[in-house]
From TrEMBL:
Species assigned in the record: Pygocentrus nattereri (Red-bellied piranha)
Biased composition (Basic and acidic residues): 474-509
Region entry Disordered, spans: 279-307, 375-401, 467-527
Domain REM-1: 389-466
Compositional bias of kind Polar residues: 280-290
Gene Ontology terms: cellular component: cell cortex; cytoskeleton; plasma membrane
InterPro entries membership: AH/BAR_dom_sf, F_BAR_dom, FCH_dom, FNBP1L_SH3, HR1_CIP4_FNBP1L, HR1_rho-bd, HR1_TOCA, SH3-like_dom_sf
SUPFAM superfamilies per record: BAR/IMD domain-like (SSF103657), SH3-domain (SSF50044)
Name the UniProt record assigns to this protein: Formin-binding protein 1-like
Main location (coarse class): membrane
Domain F-BAR residue range list: 1-260
Pfam families: FCH (PF00611), HR1_TOCA (PF25610), SH3_9 (PF14604)
């Protein structure tokens, strides 16, 4: 994983994370310093203790008890020397190395962040120039329109003198010429801004973030090396420390992946801004007074610097995309017996409004840190059922995890159902082993659990498909174009003066099924022959199209078996046909069809 591509919009969070990494390194260095001071004090006190209890030798000292005590004191003195060696090695190999490395990291981090801020400031400056030229172009077009109105009024006025008409015509020509110049300037500034923006998000920022990632990974590796050095120093005097060595250096290279998993939003970098032509309402008075469109090179456009649509894109540090609820109706293939039908699932689809770029550039410095430390990575906002409170990438991973877990539970229920059915077959063949009817409640409960799990899996798969579809759609619109598309401003104008898209393009609900999609299945002239009969275990309201209402203990004719979708086609005594859930009925097929087999 790369910070330059996955965390392109997390400048402030990477700033805070790298600062946290240096602070953590210095905190560990402070711990080592205090530890070696304790070792030095401990060794000093041990030597004082040995000196205090080691008097001059006498004849009484030749007794074995005295000799043993002297040996203990001698070993303790040597042990104090080893503690001094530990303190000295910690000071040189661990503490000193950490402090030198910390200073180098601070200087390198400062350099990379300065480069990032310079790149942001330069992009902001380019935008201001483009915005000023745009406002100037709009202002000149308005003045040209006013001059045109004055000229037309004087030209149609019989009382106006020729000099007044010529003066108005000259003024119109001047204003039109100035509008042409401001238009060309705006087009040039727009092309320059789009090119600089592309370089900013595809070259400058990725390289800076890659340097920060390399620095952070080197810091983590360095910490692992100092952990190992710390453990090696202890191993010389305390063998049991070697058991802790593996735990001290575990996962030294996993921090970069953790940062990406925490910060990755899943949004795409913003596209280019389109050219907005304000001169379409100006009538031309002559060949010299036309507002020309800047000519573009006939060569093949470079897709890296092209100007594409900026609609439905999220700006760098803009506001979080608003989400709307859309209704997704669960298919009738999963009715949970005998519980009532599940309500419609709700999922939220992200909507990417076009925010004002000035606000977005200001947001660069105001983004709050999402996780100040790794200990807080697991703390998040309150969970919603569809996980729409998470960014797209995080939501996709959580939904996939949930689907995998539900699939495992469904497999367990299916295995349990198969085992119960086998046991029931054994009981039917050998009644002395047990009553087959005693297994029916457990089988029904297992089938009910399976239908519930299938419903949950389908609901989460719908949300997952929505997230992946939105991601693919945003990627397909990302390629820019070098051609300046001259067109009038479209959409509606917001109170702040910025243009927004039509709501018809913002709200896209999933396609509704054709109400006549299954009509052909029920248009048979001749009724199908019955292949068996069934008994209703539960009542079914038949609210969906094509289903049949049935009551508990009602006997129906089976005219079409379950094809694996959970539905069986039946016919009432009155001749009414329709589908009912297979799990709601007990089916017995005739011998001439596929044998007298009972399905639950």
């Amino acid at each position: 994983m790369s910070w330059g591509t996955d965390l392109w919009d997390q400048f402030e969070n990477l700033d805070k994370h790298t600062q946290w990494g240096i602070d953590f390194l210095e905190r560990y260095a402070k711990f080592v310093k205090e530890r070696l001071e304790i070792e030095q004090t401990y060794a000093k006190q041990l030597r004082s203790l040995v000196k205090k209890y080691c008097p001059k030798r006498s004849k009484d000292d030749e007794f074995t008890s005295c000799l043993s005590f002297y040996a203990i004191l001698n070993e303790l003195n040597d042990y104090a020397g080893q503690r001094e060696v530990v303190a000295e090695d910690m000071g040189h190999k661990v503490y000193g190395e950490l402090m030198r490395y910390s200073q180098d990291l601070k200087a390198e981090r400062k350099h990379h962040l300065q480069e990032g801020r310079k790149a942001q400031q330069y992009l902001e400056q380019c935008w201001k120039q483009m915005d000023n030229s745009k406002k100037k172009f709009e202002r000149e077009c308005r003045e040209a329109e006013k001059s045109q109105i004055i000229f037309e009024r004087l030209d149609n006025d019989i009382n106006a003198t020729k000099s007044e008409v010529e003066k108005a015509k000259a003024q119109l020509y001047l204003r039109t010429h100035m509008a042409d110049e401001s238009k060309n300037e705006y087009a040039a500034q727009l092309q320059n801004f789009n090119a600089e923006q592309w370089k900013h998000f595809n070259a400058a920022i990725p390289q800076i973030f890659k340097n920060l990632q390399d620095m952070d990974e080197r810091r983590t590796v360095k910490l692992g090396e100092t952990y190992r050095s710390f453990a090696e120093v202890e191993r010389k005097v305390i063998p049991i420390i070697s058991k802790c060595l593996e735990g001290m250096v575990t996962a030294a290279k996993n921090d970069s992946s953790i940062v990406v998993e925490s910060f990755k939003s899943g949004f795409e970098p913003p596209g280019d801004f389109p050219f907005e032509d304000f001169s379409q309402n100006i009538q031309r008075t002559g060949s010299d007074g036309t507002i020309g469109t800047p000519k573009t090179d006939g060569s093949k456009p470079d897709p890296k610097h092209s100007i594409g649509k900026a609609k439905n894109k999220l700006w760098l540090f803009g506001k979080k995309p608003k989400v709307r609820l859309a209704h997704v109706q669960l298919p009738p293939s999963i009715p949970p017996p005998p519980l009532p039908s599940f309500p419609h699932a709700h999922f939220q689809s992200p909507k990417f409004p076009t925010e004002r770029i000035a606000h977005c550039l200001n947001e660069m410095r105001t983004v709050k840190s999402k996780i100040p430390s790794f200990r807080g990575l697991k703390r998040g906002a309150p969970n919603l059922e569809d996980l729409s409170h998470l960014p797209p990438e995080q939501r996709r991973k959580k939904l996939q995890q949930r689907i995998d877990e539900l699939s495992r539970e469904l497999q367990k229920e299916m295995d349990q159902r198969d085992a119960l059915n086998k046991m029931k077959d054994v009981y039917e063949k050998n009644p002395q082993m047990g009553d087959p009817g005693s297994l029916q409640p457990k089988i029904s409960e297992t089938i009910c659990n399976m239908e519930k799990l299938r419903s949950e899996i389908h609901k989460n798969e719908t949300w997952l498909a929505e997230v992946e579809g939105a991601k693919q759609s945003s990627r397909s619109d990302r390629r820019p174009s070098t051609d300046v598309n001259h067109h009038a401003p479209h959409g509606r104008e917001s109170p702040e003066g910025s243009y927004t898209d039509d709501h018809s393009q913002e709200h896209r609900s999933p396609p509704q099924p054709d109400p006549h999609e299954f009509d052909d299945e029920f248009d048979d002239d001749d009724p199908l022959p019955a292949i068996g009969h069934c008994k209703a275990l539960y009542s079914f309201d038949g609210s969906n199209e094509g289903t049949l209402v049935m009551k508990e203990d009602e006997v129906l004719y089976v005219i079409e078996e379950d094809k694996g979708d959970g539905w069986t086609r039946v016919r009432k005594q009155s001749g009414e046909e329709g589908y009912v859930p297979t799990s709601y009925v007990e089916i017995t097929l005739e011998k001439h069809s596929k044998g007298a087999v009972t399905y639950i």
